[in-house]
Structure formats: structure tokens, C-alpha cells
Amino acid sequence: MSDTGRRTHYEKHDHEEPIYVANNNSIYSNGTIHYCSIYSQRTVQETKGWDVFREFPPKQDSVSMEQQKCLEMTVRMLKILAYAVTFLVVLGSGVIAKGTMLFMTSQIKKDRRLAFCNQNLGRDKQFIVSLPDEERVAWMWAILAAFAIPEIGTLIRSVRICFFKSSKRPTMVQLAVIFIAESLHTIGMAMLFFKILPELDVVKGAMITNCLCVVPAILGLLSRSSKDTKRFMKVIVDMAAIVAQVTGFIVWPLLENKPVLWLIPIASLCISLGWWENYVSRQSPIGIIKSLGRLKDELNFTRYYTYRFISIWKCLLFMMCILFSIWMDGDEPSMFFQLFNPGFGPHNIVVEEIQIQLGGTMIPDLVNATLTGDSVEVAAVHKSAFYVMLIQIFAAYFCYIFGKFACKILIQGFSYAFPINLVIPLVVNFLIAACGLRNGDNCIFHGTVPDYLFFESPALFSLSDFISRQMAWVWLLWLLSQTWITIHIWTPKAERLASTEKLFILPMYNGLLIDQSMALNRKRDDQRDVKTEDLAEIEKEKGDEYYETISVHTDNTGSSPKTVKSSDSITRIYACATMWHETKDEMMEFLKSILRLDEDQCARRVAQKYLRVVDPDYYEFETHIFLDDAFEISDHSDDDSQVNRFVKLLVDTLDEAASNVHQTIIRIRPPKKYPAPYGGRLTWVLPGKTKMICHLKDKAKIRHRKRWSQVMYMYYLLGHRLMELPISVDRKEVMAENTYLLTLDGDIDFQPHAVRLLIDLMKKNKNLGAACGRIHPVGSGPMVWYQMFEYAIGHWLQKATEHMIGCVLCSPGCFSLFRGKALMDDNVMKKYTLRSDEARHYVQYDQGEDRWLCTLLLQRGYRVEYSAASDAYTHCPEGFNEFYNQRRRWVPSTIANIMDLLVDYKHTIKINDNISTPYIAYQMMLMGGTILGPGTIFLMLVGAFVAAFRIDNWTSFEYNLYPILIFMFVCFTMKSEYQLLVAQILSTAYAMIMMAVIVGTALQLGEDGIGSPSAIFLISLSSSFFIAACLHPQEFWCIVPGIIYLLSIPSMYLLLILYSVINLNVVSWGTREVQVKKTKKEIEQEKKEAEEAKKKAKQSSLIGFLQGVNSNEEEGSIEFSFAGLFKCLLCTHPKSNEEKVQLLHIASTLEKMEKKLDSLEKTVDPHGQSRSRKLSVGLRGSTSGDPLVSVAEGQEDDNESDSETDTLSTTPREKRDDLINPYWIEDPDLKKGEVDFLSQSELSFWKDLLDKYLYPIDANKEEEARISRDLKELRDSSVFSFIIINALFVLIVFLLQLNKDNLHFKWPLGVKTNITYDEVTQEVLISKEYLQLEPIGLVFVFFFALILVIQFTAMMFHRFGTISHILASTEMNWFCTKKVSISNNVYIMTMARGQNINVLFQFQSEDLSQDALLDKNAIAIVKDLQKLNGLDDDYDNDSGSGPHNVGRRKTIHNLEKARQKKRNIGTLDVAFKKRFFSMNANDGPGTPVLNRKITLRRETLKALETRRNSVMAERRKSQMQTLGANNEYGVTGMLNNNHGVPRHRTSTANISVKDVFAEPNGGQVNRGYETSLGDEDDSNSIRLQPRQNQVTFQGRYQ
Predict the structure, then answer these.
(1) Residues forming a β-bridge with 666
(2) Nearest Cα to 948, choosing from 886, 995, 1009?
(3) Helix or strand or coil: residue 33?
(4) What pLDDT was estimated at residue 231?
(5) Which of 242, 772, 1276, 1584 could form a disulfide with 816 if both were Cys (CB 3.0 to 4.6 A apart)?
(6) DSSP assigned state of 850
(7) DSSP letter (8 states) at residue 772
(8) Cα angle 1575-1578-1581, degrees, rounded to a multiple of 5
């Protein structure tokens, strides 16, 4: 077969979709494959009847999937509970706040008369009461407090943000506008509450509060832009709402005939002015409104600075308005202060008797009632005003807090908008009922409400009077107009867990008008919504990109430059995994996680592309694996490199992982292989059409270790792939902000949901530089159990506390999300490339790279957060030695990085808003606890020995000191394996001692009682752990290994710290170490050294001395010996070296012969090239421009078994170039994918990056010796300081302990009382014995207890935030799945290669339209339609798997059916298109094949068909562009180096359905699939071919 013929199997056809084999049995069949031509369809011959049995991938859920399933139902039930509770609290607290507000305003009217209950004064008499000034003043103060409390909250929030974060100083114009608006708002509030409401009955007062939206209504009308849909209708409704609001200005003044009520228009306008910001927009066609819109955007940066003063001013202005109101009533304003104490203190109320009119008990007119002259004084319930004020304040606060919670977790429609709009109707109804009852019986509320206090009741009226005379129908217009003006609260578009600044315009709420404040202060979404018709335009904007995705983000015209495109705001996630010596199980978990992300991204892309659904969680995704030390010396020659077993393991594991994820046997297309300056590259296209790129690092060409892999992907993805794009700087800025690096380890296990939660945090806060998830250790054995508890406590308490009071200091590289823009900032990426030239650099930089990277981000002002809901599972060390070596790296690097942060804390506090002085103090406390940990544990052991074994202090001190000294001596003098052995022995001994100590401590606590300091501390500690576990129900059982943690305290906090500090000079990785393959020369050298060592050992032995073994190898003229034990030499002389001379002569002769053969070859073939390969080190990275040697026709048919080993062969040998035809690229274990080459620009980038930052550090013995010497010096100084500090601490505390009788504190709890009777003196002696708080107890109680309190409190707040995040990200499907009769179902017929597949869908929905329901569940529908499992009609492969259906399985039918089946090929989107484009709502019934829990009604199915038809119509309108097509970045396709021919990828997205499935049997041709199945068909021919011809090359090198 010619070279060209061979090459056709590996060429890439750019117009093809990436192809996969998805089949349930054909992978393992022995059928023969026929190739008609490269463009013919591949068919599979019928399987032999004896080999039809199948093997399916096991359905084994990973740990992350099992945990996810356990949580789903619980979380959904919790969200339903959140819906109900939030609705009830917002509604109830809103009604209470509004009612208590009206109750307070009813008491401040001067000379108001109220009917008094006559139950205690005489049932035959009638009484009235007028409130004295003392009582009125108390209620005025209550209203002032209710108004001022939210303003004080605004002041506190503003001061906190200004001091701990940052806020810009406002301009004079901004300050003036805010000052005027807020002042008028405050004056209007004072008018309403002190002049208008006291003159109205409470029912009318409640109604009038619906007329406070005039200014927002006018501004909203003027802000309507021409881009608004149905603008004309909206303007009409706006004008009607304004008219309805204005009617409130005149209705009550005209009906009540009270001049003071004409203040209503002024008050309403002034109050509504307070929410002007929310209703102005920069899109308004009116210039002044547009200017106000710009001013509003500017105020977002200066608000907190301004409101530090505005909040105080508003409180003072409100008080001045109260004084002015008192003066207007004819009283002295000073009484407001003079009567404060009498008003809230004991005072009396005068009750006056009136004449009974008409012999009845009803009092029609209290104002004109005739007094009898008799009066009675009753004691006032003087705290009533205070209690009502508290109720109002807390009710308003709860309404605000729960309302904000509803907005954050995306339940705003039902639990926020609905209850807020119900507040006034419910208040009106309750007030009518309460006032009616009070008017009917003055004593109805006797004993509940003081008889002299009640609402200002309306006059008696019937229902018809209420509707007609009381103008109730007008109130309904006001209510409807307010609902329309605040319609935006029903359709929120905020992201999950949006910040308060994104939810509300003003920092806090208005406590007196809580429902109006909540509705009008909730931010409107003034950016234009993305409509389905806009998606096509955005798709055109993105151009011919590999993913033809539709961005959901639109230009924010208020902030983004015009040059920025919508597609630039798409979330881009680069998963960057570092691998090094992972096992197959670990790789399997990682690959399954990546494949799940690939499936999720594909579903979102397809939903937007074909269903025209706007997905707020859409992202683009690409995986990069950086495999360290991926090459080893080849088996056949020391001059060549081949990939090691870990690379081959990765290649082999991928298919198995894909089969496991998709639940059908899949064979993914072989990887495309690229030679690269740093080693090589393998590129896969996964079933969801996302790329997975494995970068194979050769440590001879590039620096190895994790930090340098991180530098690789940062500079490659953010430097080369982003900064070198030919686009504007503004576009790069937006793209960098929305580009994220998902850092992973090679054994991580996670779900796509976990990544989305991290993205939510990033979208919520633009200052967030990194976010990490909850890491769960996976494995088995006691060490894993210990780490389960350690990780749990570390995350529950430590990380949660860092998140709440400052920033997380370490975002672990095993599962974290970094913002590209943050990494690209000054002093981050560039500084991260710093080479370790000093001893401390090796500790801080190379041993703790993740923590150092986070330290750099913090020092640049970025925030690092922790998401407890984002779970990831990683393998942890299972052995003692591996665990100790891991912590040996972690402990010094942690101390070094935290010290680096603490030393420069002033600069960090100044530049980072999230790090404050209290947080630094907290970290200093932790650092002190870490450094003094060994000393503290030592003292604890000393005290525990005294208590448990009843020995004195000095003996205990001595017993505990000896093991520590022995261990330190071992660490200083012996190798690591002996140190770890001693540590294991001591750890075991300490564990047994700790058990004895625990028993002794328990006995001691029994004697001292529960009130002793030790008992209180232990109870508090265990209770905090237990409560934390209960608050983390998913992780509750992590607390069980706490007993192991307790027994391991001396080992982990004493021995481990000593081991880490004393081995500070050891900078090896310590884990996952494997033996390196050696060259023949190295093996020979080792043998030679071993022989010499053996000789030396023999010489140094007694027998060797007696035998006379010597290094000079002398011989004597006369020799005699006795049985080989004694040997005597006489007349000694050195041995002759004739053998060595002869060997040297032979070597020189062979060298001359090789030179003559070389000259002869050049004479015969002057154009031939020497076959000598480049060495594994040194020149392997050079890029020779010599062309490849032409291979003679028929050379591949040569039957020589191994021509390469014939060193004297005269056959022309191919020259190797590591950038053209490296030896590793022909490895059959890498499969037979095509070979391609990097573009010239990328080659230049890698060469420059290697030269500047990543070139291998050559072995320099002098430099290594210097670094080793410096590391030892650093170790010695660190150990000396460490020991001195701990020794001084131990000495001081121990000496205080010895003098505890003189130096102690009496503990007030647990006092023992002794009563003694002296018979002689007949006296009773009572003595009290106090527990003594010893110095060591003082240290424990006041230091560790303080840290525990801080951490527990922070954990509680963080847990609430985590639950909110979980609830916000949980989707509730509001439809039932009840089974109905067949006549109500709609069936979809799909065709799959001639086989009928019947799909059943049915959605039941009462509240949602079919389109809305389709939009809500689009992702779930697509995930079902794109499943590869079932594409071959194999839905019954697990049928009858239950225990009762085993005998009903149609085993033989299924086997025979699978035997006749043709190969089914396609990606996930091909599977979707097969089903989607073939659906028909009018077909008859069939068998359901998809998720049987989801069914579609006919209307929903028709909505699906409508969208399908619109997509097909759009596809037909536009034609595919193959040349000059614009790519994502708006520039023409960049040229490759393949002779200047543009490289394009032609998409199949615009092809019609018939074109997609035009093949004879449907589906697309798998032109990229390898030629053999399991290497069974042509394996013999492969073995006969020379290795260099198994792979052909594309482009310029062919």
C-alpha cells in the first residue's frame, strides 16, 4: 500500500463532525470491516453466531454522583419549605409592620377621644378617654425610632464598607442631588405620619399608602425607549397608572373636608421622590432623564460615602419636622424632650364619664358627647409604646431580610412580589374587622390591648357604603396602579445570590412604609432582555467558530464600549489538570468528571442552538491536561524517547470512562498527535464536541513540577490564546473578566453542578479572584479516616471563618476556579514565574504553590472565597509515610506564606478591601497557636500524665521529654525512612497513652464536676463539633473518626511539626514517587559502582583483610595460601594491563571502521541522512529544517523483523527531528490518530516561553551544593528559633504550674461546700472549696476558647449562605407526572437507521405556557434527546433487572437483534438531531424510550416542532462559507504554515435535515475512525511494518 494510500485513513476532513463509535456490542465482535473507499459508508458484517454475547459498562456511580442523588430530594423539599416559610414571613411581618405603624399614628392626634371599656368601672355607665401629652410624646418617639433604626443600619453599613472596603468621594452635583431628594423624602414622611394619617381613620390611612408612586410612575413613562417591545401599550398603561395615582391627591381631601388633608399631594410627591433612581434610564429618549440615568450609575460608586452623612441628616431632619409639627399644634416643642421620661415611665390616664344617649350602649359621636363631670384615673401601661415600637421594628426588619433572601435564592415571584402586594389588602380587611368588633363592644380586646389605646376607627358603615361612600373602588385603582408601577418585581433577572447592591437601589429599607419600600426599592432590570429572535444575530456575530454557540450575554450599553461584542461576555472555562503518576482508578474519576462537563456543555449549546433557549448558565469549555515527566528512554535505544506507562494508561482509560458516563460502549476517535517544543501533545474531541488536550512534558526540554505546569497553562491560555488575539483592548478586557481557569488534580471527582456554583460566586463579585470548593478525601484505612475528620473540621470551621471575616488564604489546586483577569494582573502571573534561587523560595514557592498563588492575589486586592456546596472528591494518602511526607511539604509552606502575608499586612489591608486588622489579628492568633503547638501539646501531656498516672510534675516532665529528644536526634541524624519508622512507633505509643489520658481525664472530670473549666471546655468543644456536623447532614459521619483524631493529637501536633521543621531542607515531593527508567550507560555505571562498593566492603571486612584483598590488585612472584583464608605474596609487583590495552585497541579499530562506513554511505547516497537520533537530553529540542528522508517504494513490505538494531546496516536511515517526526509519535499504544503540527505562531510562543521562563535548569553541582547548604542553614535557624520559643513557653508555663498554689484563679463554678459540726464548741463550720484555674488551664480557656467562639459563629453565618446558594441553584419543576389515558398522550416517532424508536413525552402544567415550560426544561429535554445510550434501539439491555423480572428477560431476542445491527456512529449533538428533526406530533402510539419521568403534552410538543421548523428555515436561508469566513473574533481565518493554505473547519450546522441524514442508512460517515477494531483485523500487517511507517504526517512534512 502506498504512502498516500495509508495516509488517507488519518487525514482530517474539516467539514466533518468529530465522530465516535457508540455501540453496545460491536466493539467486541469479530466481524470484518470493509472499506469501499474513503468516502464510502463503513458497514459491519454480521457477527458470528457463537460470538454474540455482550458486555456492558457497569453502572457504578462515583462518590460525587452518589452524594448528589442523596441530596437532590432533600434539597427540593427544603426549597419547597423555603417557598412557604418565606412567603408567610414576608406577608405576616409586612402586615404586622403596617398595622403597628397605623396603631402608632392613631395615638398622636391631639384631643382625640376614645371609648373606654366600662368593665371595671361600671357596666351601666359609659366612659371616654383622651390621651395626655406624656402618652402622645411616647408614641412620637416610637415613630421616630421606627424611622431611625433603618437609617442607623444604613450608617453602620456605610461606615463598615468605607473603612473595611472602599467608596469614592462624591462630586458636589451628586451630593446636592442626593441631599435634596432625601431631604424632601424625609419631609414628606413627617407630613404623612404626623399630619395626614392622624386625621384619617386607619382604613383610609392604609389605602392612601398605595398612592406614593407618582414620581416613579412619571419617570418610568419618560424612560420608555423605542427598543421596548409593545411600547405603545405600555405607555397607555403608564398614563392610566399616573392618573389613578393622582386621584388619591383629591379623593380624601374632598370627602373628609379637612384642610390638613390637602397636604396629601405634597407628601406623596416628596415621599415618592425617594425612589427616583430606580426609574431613570440611560436609554430614555429625553435628555434630562438620560442625564439622571448617568448620574444614577455614578452614584453606585459614591453611595456609601454619601450615606454616612445623609443617614444622620435624615434622622435629625425627621426630628425637626416632629418639633415643627408640635409647634404647629400650639404646643411647646420642648415638651418632646421634657416628657420623654414621664411618657415611658409610670403615669396615669384620666377616664371621664359621659351621659348615655338614647338609652343605648353605642356612642354615635364621641366628639359631641356630654361629660358628667366624674372622672377616674387609671394607671397607664407605660411600656406599651416601647413594645409596639419593638414589634414594628422587628417586623419590618424580618420582612426586609426574608424578602432579600427570597430574591437571592430566586423565589422572588411567589415569596416576595406576591406577599408584598397582598399586604395592604390584608391590612384593610383586618382593620375593618378589628374596628367593627371594637365599635360593637368596647371591651372586646380588654386584657389584650390597653383600654385607652386603639386604632382610629372609621365610622359605622355597611358593605355597600364601603364600596360607594368610602370610595373603595378608587382604592382598587390605586392598588392596581402600584402593582403596575412595580411590575418589575414579578419578573426578576438577577443572578443567584446577588449582592444587596445588585438587588436594591438604597442600602436599607423604609421601616414605616415597608411594603412600598420593598417594591419600589427593588432594582429594575434596565438592560434589554435577550429575545429568541436576537440569538441568530449573536450567532452571526460569533462567526465560524468551532462551537457555533449562542451567547446569552448582551452588551450592557451603560458600561461596555461599543467595540465589545456580545460573544465576548460568554463564560469560558479552561479545565487545567496537572498529572503525575496517577493510578487507573484516579484517572478514571478525573476523566468521568470531564466527560460529565462535556455532556452538560453540549446540552446547553444544543438547547440554545436548536431550541432557541436563553441559558443564563451557558459556558464554553475546554480541557487541558499537563502530564509531568511523560517521557522515558525507549526500549530499543537510549537515544530515543517514548511516552511512559502513565500516558498510555490515560489513553487506554478514556474509552472506559466514556462508556461508564454514557452507559453504552463508546470508542472515542484516536487522539491527534502534535510534536511540540516542550515534548508533545495529544488532542481528543469528546462526545460533546469539547476538546481535551494533553500536554506531554519532557523534563529534558521544560521544567517539571506542578508550579511550572501552572505557568505553562497561564501563559498559554491567557498570554498566547487571549492577549495575542487581533482584537481591541476593550474586547480583551471583557473576555479576560469572563475567562476562568478550573484548576484540577488528576484524581479529582466532581459534578458539573459544583463548577456552576463556583461560577455563581464569580458572577456575583467581580473582585473575586479565586473560589474553591469543599474537598472530600477518598480512600480507605485509618489515615483516611483521620483525614476525613481533619478535612471536615478544617472546612466547617477554618475555611468558613476565613471566608466570613476576611479571605480564604489557600484555594487548593485540586479543585478551584481562578479568574483570568486576576491572574493577569501585575505581580501575579509574572511573579509566579520567579525561579527559586534562595532557600526560602524552595519552601514558600515550590512546596506550597497553591497557597503562594493565593497570597499573590490577596496582595493585589482580590478576594478568595469558599463554597461549601461545591463538592469535590480527591484521593488522599492512605499510608503513614506518604501522609507525613505530604504534610512535611504543607506545614513549612503554610507557615512561610502566612508569615509573608502578616509581615506585609499594612500594605495588604490598604489594597485589599476584604482584609482588615481584626482578620490579621485572628491569623496572628492562629499562627501563634501553630508555632506554640508542640509546646502546648507537651504541657498537655505532662498535665495528663499527672492526672492519669498520679505522678508528680517533674517525673511527668522527664518521661515526656525523653521521647521528644530521641525523635529529634533521629530526625537530625538518620534517613527519612528511619525517621518515619520512629514516628510510627511513637505515634502508636502516644495513641495508647492518650487513651489512658482520656480515661483519667474523665475520672478527674467526674470528681471536679460539670462546672470545672476542663469540663466546660470539653463540652463546648464537643458540642460545637456536633452542631457543626448536624448543620452539615451530608457530611455528618465525618465526625465519627473524631476519636482517631483525638488519639493522634500528639502525633500530628507534636511529632509531625518537629518532623516538618527538622526536614525543612528536604524539598522533594515525597508522594507518588516511581522508579525512573535508566539508560544502559547508567545501568553499567551503577553495576560498576556496586562492584567497587562490594570490593571495598569485602576489603574492610576481617576475611578480606586476612585474604589480602587490596585496591591495587597487586600480584607476587611467589604466592601461597591456606584454604583461601591466608594469602602470602613475596616480591610483589602490579598486575599487567595487557587486557585493557587490547580492549582500547579494539575500540579504536571499530571507530575507524564506522567512519569509513559513513564515508562509503555518503558516496553511495550523497543525499542520505545519518540515522543517529538526538539524545534524550541536550539537543532534543532543536528544530532542524532538514526535510524528511524519502522512503523507498515497497520498503514497508520488507520482512526484516528489526532493522533498527542492525547498527552496521547500510540502509539509509531516517533522521529524527523532535518537531517533525519524534520517535514517540509512532507508538502504537497511542493509537493511530493523525499527526498534525503546531502553527508557526504557537511554535514561536512555546520557544520564547521556554527560553525565558521554562528552560530546564541544568544540573550544577556547585549551585546544588550552595542551595543544599543554604537550606540546611535555614533549617538550623528555623529549628533553633522554633525550639527556643517553645522551650521558653514550656518553661514559663511549667514553672507557673509548679507554683499553682500561689498563682491561680478561683473558678466560680463547681464550688464544693463542706459542712462540719464541732461537738466541743457546738459550732457548725461551713467551708467552700473552689476549683483552681491553673496557668495552663488559663492558656487553654482564654486562647483556644476565643478561637473556637470566632470559628463557630462564622460557621453559622457561612452555613446560612451555603444553604441559600444550594436553594438558589435548585430548579423546581412545577409540573406533575401523573399517568393519564393514552388518548391524552402524544407520541413522537423517530427513525434511527431503519429502526422505529417511539419517544413519549408529557408535561402537565397549569401555570406555565407551553413555551415557558419548554424554556424552563430545555436542558433536561436536550440531555434526554442526546443520549448515546439507546441510539441503537437498545433500551432493554437492562430490562427485567429487578429480582422479580429475571425470568422475563428477552435475552435471546436481544442478542439476535444486536447481531444484525449496523454500526451506529455520531456525537451527542448528532444523536439529538436524529431524534429532534424526526419528531412528529401526529404519529401514533409507540413505546417510550427516554426518561419515563418526563412526558410532553401535545401543545408542548408542537412548541418543540415550531422551534425546530424555525431553526431549519434559518439554516436554509444562510449558506455555508468555507473561505474568508469570519471567526469568533471578527477577523478572517488565520493561516497555518501548511504552505500558506488557510485552515478552516466547515460546520454541518447549516445543512438541512435531509443532508444530515442523507447516507443510505442514516448518520454521518466516520471518516476519522481507526481502521481496526481492537487491533484484530490487521494486527499481523501492523507487526510486519517498520515502526516509522505506521504514522503518516500532514502538511508541509509529507
Answers:
(1) 22
(2) 995
(3) strand
(4) 82
(5) 772
(6) H
(7) E
(8) 120
Q: Is the pLDDT of residue 424 over 70?
A: yes
Torsion angle (degrees, nearest 10) of CA 199, 200, 201, 207: -150
Reported as a pLDDT band with limits 50, 70 and 90, residue 358 is low
Query: Angle between the 514-521 and 63-106 helix axes, to the nearest 10 degrees?
Result: 130
Cβ atoms of 870 and 876 closer than 8 Å? no
The upper half-sphere exposure of residue 557, i.e. CA atoms within 13 Å in the direction of its Cβ, equals 12
Is the distance from CB of 606 to CB of 1504 less than 8 angstroms? no
CA gap 1490, 1492 in Å, rounded:
6
Q: How far apart are CA 130 and CA 352, in angstroms?
A: 9
Phi, psi of 746, rounded to the nearest 5 degrees: -75, 0
Q: Are strands 126-130 and 641-643 parallel, antiparallel or unpaired?
A: unpaired
How many separate helices (H) and strands (E) can be counted in the chain? 55, 26
Distance CA 929, CA 1347 (A): 10
CA distance 272 to 676: 67
Per-residue pLDDT tens over the stretch 212-240: 999 999 999 998 887 777 888 889 999 99
Residue type, 1502: K
Q: What is the pLDDT of residue 123?
A: 74
Q: Answer whether 289's CB lies under 8 Å from 222's CB.
A: yes
- Is the separation of the CB atoms in 384 and 453 below 8 Å? yes
Highest-confidence range of 540-544, 1287-1291, 1371-1375, 1435-1439, by mean pLDDT? 1287-1291
Nearest to 749 by CA among 658, 814, 819, 656: 814
How do strand 768-778 and strand 863-875 relate by DSSP bridges?
parallel
Kindly tell me if the per-residue pLDDT of 1011 is higher than 70: no
Residue predicted with more confidence, 1373 or 1239:
1239
Q: What angle do CA 885, 887, 889 make, to 5 degrees?
A: 75
Reduce the DSSP state of residue 284 to 3 states and report it: coil
- Contact indicator for 901, 859 with CB cutoff of 8 Å: yes
Q: What percent of the chain lies above the pLDDT cut of 90?
A: 33
What CA–CA distances, in Å, run from 1039 to 190, 872, 989?
Answer: 57, 19, 24
Q: Is 176 exposed, middle or buried (0-12, 13-18, 19+ CB in 10 A)?
A: exposed
In one letter, which amino acid is 43?
T
Q: Is 1322 left (phi over 0), alpha (psi -120 to 50) or beta?
A: left
**Residue 1528 near residue 543 (C-beta atoms within 8 A):** yes
CA distance 1329 to 1308: 10
Please give the Cα distance from 1015 to 308 (Å, whole number).
46
User: Residue 395: which of 515, 480, 496 has the closest Cα?
Assistant: 515
Closest CA to 62 of 783, 595, 773: 595
- Rounded to whole angstroms, the Cα distance separating 1559 from 599 reads 26
Closest residue by Cα to residue 1360 from 951, 649, 868, 739:
868
Q: What cell numbers appear for 127 in the block?
A: 366612659
Cell matching residue 1028 = 457543626
pTM for this one? Answer: 0.77
User: Residue 56: its pLDDT value, please?
Assistant: 65
* Residues ≥6 apart with Cβ < 8 Å to 720: 1242, 1245
Strands 1114-1122 and 815-819: what pairing? unpaired
Q: Which helix (H) or strand (E) holds 73?
A: helix 63-106
By C-alpha distance, which of 789, 758, 754 is closest to 872? 754
- In order of 107, 378, 482, 537, 1250, the CA distances from 138 in angstroms are 9, 17, 33, 64, 78
The pairing of strands 691-697 and 619-627 is parallel
Distance between CA atoms of residues 1350 and 798, nearest Å: 10
Exposed (0-12), middle (13-18) or buried (19+): which is 1039, by Cβ within 10 Å?
Answer: buried
- Cell match 429568541: residue? 532
How far apart, in Å, are the Cα atoms of 1192 and each of 389, 1214, 1216? Answer: 99, 11, 17
Other CB atoms closer than 10 Å to residue 494's CB: what's the count?
17
